[in-house]
Amino acid sequence: MDKKDIYEHLAKIYLDASSQKKKKSKKKPIVSKGLFFTGSFVVLSLVAVITSSLLLKPKSFIPETALVIADDALKINFSFTPVKKEVVFLNLNKLNLADYKALGFSVKKADFNDTLSLRVEFNNIFNEKSEVYCKNISYKWQKFKINLSDFKKISDWSEMSGLSFTVEEWNSRDKKGLVYIDNVRLIK
Question: What is the pTM of this model?
Fold first, then answer.
């Protein structure tokens, strides 16, 4: 083999190799374009989902300003043998509730089978009393939010004397039972 043959042989190998690289490189842009568009679609979709979730927050994520009334869970252990009702009373000590909009709390009963309603009552120092009934208390925790405007007989919220939760004999199918009340708070 002379130099010319070696040169042609090397040129052929080089040209064949470079043409194969060009063929492979032609395929890569198509794949990378597809990946680019797919990746762009995924990123834009995520941005849309995140933006819409931030703009349309569910009410459960909206923070509330509240005054906690009871630090611990309350328990009403009722037995209607001698009495006709059981009450848990929270002393509000002339608390001004004029700026508050609602009463919030969670409640559950211990017995699965019992049918039960809970009476919620506010009173002020002027002897005004008003009650609202929470019906169909469940054996699972339920959240209640009662607007203070639903307590129709209270005209002055500036000096409140008490809040009570009552289980009455005529609002319970069973004569004995247990009710738990937790997270009692006033919401602005």
Answer: 0.64
